Amino acid sequence: MGAAPLTTDSIGAALRALREASALTGEAVARRASMSAAKLSKIETGRALPTVRDVELILSALKVSEEAKEQLLTAARAEVTEATAWRLLRRMGPWKHQQAIRAIEKTTVTLRLFQGQLVPGLLQTPEYATAVFSLPPALPEETRTRTVAARLERQAVLYEESRAFHFVICEHVLRWRICEPAVMAVQLDRLVSLSRLPNVTIGVVPLTGRMPDFPMTCFSLHDDRLVMIETFHSEITTRDPKDVRLYLETFERFSAVARYGDDMRATVEGVRNGFLP
């Protein structure tokens, strides 16, 4: 059969339109696609995000043309994985990007964040954040001020006790001097202070001991629904369950060797003391 034009905003709605055009019942398509009718219904109504494999199975069950199948599979890949180049984010206004992240964080109950490059934005002091946005390519002063302010506004979510935050930071991050020693010392004091919040857990992966993996990128897990990954050229957002599971397993490996509580605070304070006169 041919495919109806893809004019819907979601893959699920497009798949439902194709099924209805085929005159096949949901039960019949689900059986052919080796999935439950309940799962197919959730996909069609947008209550569950399908994997690319799910979409491929459904399209095969519907016997759509190869051309239509490739069109929908391309759309499915784009829906579960999205990359935005940093240069585009700079062009649109980096403070707007901070606001977009804040919107995602406001809908997140459990946030897990791994950092091997910088102190996480939610934990940064104003001075440290200013230093971050002064790194090449440095933002113009007015843009930098607006972006820092937007980042600091995000931090209010830390005090909502209905949410949980788990940060894992590599110890070398605490030692990298991206600003003056006095600013680094204040930043590390803030980590110690925030670690005492009842809904905030901060772990530090020590330089000593065996590393469980390579800290290739920093990433944040928003519940079990999406991951945001930062690379040198872009920010990648993926909702593919397999990708989410991979990053969750990676987070857990680093978390398992991190120091927490008093041990973490002793590590941070020891590094801080090295920045004091």
Features:
alpha/beta, 277 residues
Q: What's the short version?
A:
By secondary structure, the protein is an alpha/beta fold. It has helices spanning 11-22, 26-32, 37-44, 52-62, 66-80, 86-92, 94-106, 126-132, 141-154, 171-175, 181-194, 241-257, 261-273, and strands spanning 81-85, 110-115, 164-170, 200-205, 218-222, 226-230, 234-238. The chain has a 7-stranded mixed beta sheet with strand order 1-7-6-5-2-3-4.
Describe this structure in words.
- By secondary structure, the protein is an alpha/beta fold.
- The chain contains 13 helices and 7 strands.
- A 7-stranded mixed beta sheet has the order 1-7-6-5-2-3-4.
- A hairpin with a 3-residue loop joins strand 5 (218-222) and strand 6.
Gross morphology: elongated
Q: How many angstroms does the end-to-end distance come to?
A: 76 Å
Helix proportion of residues, in percent?
Answer: 40-55%
What is the C-alpha radius of gyration, as a whole number of Å? 22 Å
Tell me the number of strands: 7
Strand order of the largest sheet: 1-7-6-5-2-3-4
Biggest sheet details: 7 strands, mixed
